[in-house]
């Protein structure tokens, strides 16, 4: 072999092994160890002071003292020191324990070799023998009455979770598609329950409305969640609607479901100058002049519009129920 | 003192003494607490007020709103906005605007009270509109109902102004300002005039009595101390989340680095 041949090969690196263990200063220098011990003791003492602070503020501090903190502003002193006391007492116990372990507890490096997971053959045989002996002693083979009744009991226990599944139902039927709005339902203020005349709303005005309650009827929360409507009045010439939607408005008054078609938040942030409706949850923005067309954000379709007209007494009423389900999408919903 | 000793055993003495004491107490109190009424502007002064306002308007406002308040490309017409609108916009310092940003914000007013009144009188003289509201004229403390105000606020105001009245973001850099620290009269004027992005809340939709309740609720929210510890601006999950993500997770990362470092 010539040296030329050798130059192309790289000599294999020898295993460098584990670097030599360097002991901490606390292991070699008794002075450093003493210092670390003191540090741990100080950390534990700070924790004790935290507990005393907690007990003191819980027991003796009055609840109406306020202190000013630079970023937090005016803060209730009792709550502040309760929290601080508990935080200090817990955090410094942990800090001291970790510091103790890191600086003073034994610093030996131990190598634990991997071994096979399978148990020794003799252990496995012993185990089978023990189980068999136990079963024999309990009489599982002989006492079939116990075996069968136990089987029946366990089987019945298994049924209970299946029974609980029933609580996932019943199916909502038309709860998703129907609201309380019917043809001729009066629009009333929320709160206040007063019917509204077109003259009550100036241009630029809004009203949060709900369907009128019949005498003796109570307002249900789950109905408010579907029925909430926002009434807006703008100048009629600002509408850019087709003939049908325009016929659903009255003298510039237009009504939309307040339940966002994205995730069902209440869309009621109406910007009077831009005529935009903004949903506070995900910033879906709807253009009121174009039948709540989505102009920004994640919402997939406009807010449902409620057709309006005037009843014999001159109050605003719904001309017909909502023509589409209000609120977010669901599986059975027609996406059209 | 002769007649006191003569009549003090009479059965009318007690009631008479009570009436006299109440009368003295009442008159003393009303004299002591009396405020000098501002002279009501007589009819002849009204025209000078309008003239003064017109001059102020020509100098300070007409460059944007037009010489006759007819509006321009960068500013709306002020015909029919009424004295209430002027009093709100100028009285809170929103107008004149400091810069051409998307929204005029509350700042130290440029015009003093008399000048604001003159401007309001001038704009109101152009076309009818809602009259300005003085805080002192509103009996919100006596007539308002805090609980009702809270319910009204949550339905009608909280979506923009936050559930604790701290304000919130709108689209494109616009925002609903905090209502904390706003004068009762200004809150009332904002509701009836609908300044900037805010819609109008007509008197039939939220009655004047209900408006006073809203003001009372805002004032009680303003005075309410934060008994549960740090309020973090009362803006809910935004500041709470920010704080726990920056301070909480930051602190945990610091602890993790320290835990994994080798002791020397």
Automatic annotation (TrEMBL), chain B:
Swiss-Prot/TrEMBL catalytic activity: a quinol + 2 Fe(III)-[cytochrome c](out) = a quinone + 2 Fe(II)-[cytochrome c](out) + 2 H(+)(out)
Enzyme Commission code(s) on record: 7.1.1.8
Key words of the record: Cell membrane, Heme, Iron, Membrane, Metal-binding, Repeat, Translocase, Transmembrane, Transmembrane helix, Transport
Uppermost EC category: translocase
Domain Cytochrome c as annotated: residue spans: 48-127, 144-222
Subcellular location, record wording: Cell membrane
InterPro entries: bc1_cytC-su, Cyt_c-like_dom, Cyt_c-like_dom_sf, Cytochrome_c_Oxidase_Subunit
Location (main, coarse): membrane
One of the record's GO molecular function terms: quinol-cytochrome-c reductase activity
Membrane topology qualifier: Multi-pass membrane protein
Protein name as catalogued: Cytochrome bc1 complex cytochrome c subunit
């Amino acid at each position: 072999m010539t040296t030329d041949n050798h130059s192309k090969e790289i000599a294999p690196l020898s295993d460098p092994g584990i670097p030599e263990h360097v002991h901490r200063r606390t292991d070699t220098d008794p002075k450093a160890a003493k210092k670390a011990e003191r540090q741990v003791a100080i950390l534990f003492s700070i924790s004790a002071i935290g507990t005393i602070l907690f007990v003191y503020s819980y027991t003796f501090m009055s609840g109406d003292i306020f202190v000013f903190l630079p970023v937090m502003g005016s803060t209730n002193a009792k709550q502040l020191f309760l929290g601080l006391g508990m935080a200090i007492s817990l955090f410094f116990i942990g800090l001291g324990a970790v510091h103790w372990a890191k600086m003073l507890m034994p610093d030996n490096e131990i190598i634990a070799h991997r071994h096979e997971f399978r148990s020794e053959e003799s252990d496995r045989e012993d185990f089978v023998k023990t189980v068999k002996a136990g079963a024999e002693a309990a009489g599982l083979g002989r006492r079939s009455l116990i075996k069968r009744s136990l089987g029946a009991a366990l089987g019945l226990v298994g049924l209970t979770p299946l029974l609980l599944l029933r609580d996932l139902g019943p199916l909502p039927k038309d709860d998703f598609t129907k609201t309380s709005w019917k043809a001729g339902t009066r629009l009333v203020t929320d709160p206040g329950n007063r019917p509204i005349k077109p003259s009550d709303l100036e241009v630029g005005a809004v009203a949060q409305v709900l369907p009128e309650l019949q005498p003796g009827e109570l307002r249900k929360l789950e109905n408010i969640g579907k029925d909430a409507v926002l009434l807006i009045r703008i100048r009629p010439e600002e509408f850019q609607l087709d003939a049908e939607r325009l016929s659903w408005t009255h003298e510039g008054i237009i009504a939309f479901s307040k339940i966002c078609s994205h995730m069902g938040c209440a869309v009621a942030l109406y910007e009077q100058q831009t005529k935009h409706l903004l949903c506070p949850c995900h910033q879906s923005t709807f253009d009121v002049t174009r039948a709540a067309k989505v102009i920004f954000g994640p919402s997939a379709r406009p807010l449902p519009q409620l057709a309006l007209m005037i009843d014999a007494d001159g109050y605003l009423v719904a001309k017909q129920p909502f023509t589409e389900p209000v609120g977010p999408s669901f599986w059975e919903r027609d996406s059209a | 003192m002769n007649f006191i000793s003569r009549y003090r055993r009479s059965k009318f003495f007690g009631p008479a003494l009570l009436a006299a004491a109440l009368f003295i107490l009442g008159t003393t109190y009303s004299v002591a607490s009396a405020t000098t009424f501002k002279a009501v502007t007589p009819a002849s002064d009204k025209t000078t007020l309008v003239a003064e306002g017109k001059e102020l308007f020509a100098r300070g406002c007409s460059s944007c709103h037009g010489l006759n308040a007819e509006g321009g490309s960068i500013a709306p017409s002020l015909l029919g906005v009424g004295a209430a609108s002027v009093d709100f916009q100028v009285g809170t310092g929103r107008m004149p605007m400091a810069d051409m940003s998307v929204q005029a914000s509350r700042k130290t007013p440029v015009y003093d009270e008399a000048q604001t009144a003159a401007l309001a009188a001038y704009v109101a003289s152009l076309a009818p509109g809602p009259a300005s509201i003085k805080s002192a004229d509103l009996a919100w403390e006596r007539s308002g109902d805090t609980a009702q105000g809270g319910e009204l606020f949550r339905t009608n105001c909280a979506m923009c102004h936050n559930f604790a009245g701290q304000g919130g973001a709108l689209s494109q850099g616009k925002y609903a300002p905090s209502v904390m620290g706003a004068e009762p009269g200004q809150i009332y004027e904002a509701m009836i005039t609908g300044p900037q992005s805010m819609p109008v809340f007509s008197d039939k939709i939220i009655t004047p009595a209900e408006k006073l309740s809203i003001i009372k609720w805002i004032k009680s929210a303003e005075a309410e101390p934060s008994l549960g510890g740090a309020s973090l601006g009362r803006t809910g999950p935004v500041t709470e989340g920010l704080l726990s993500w920056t301070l909480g997770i930051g602190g945990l990362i610091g602890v993790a680095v320290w835990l994994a470092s080798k002791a020397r």
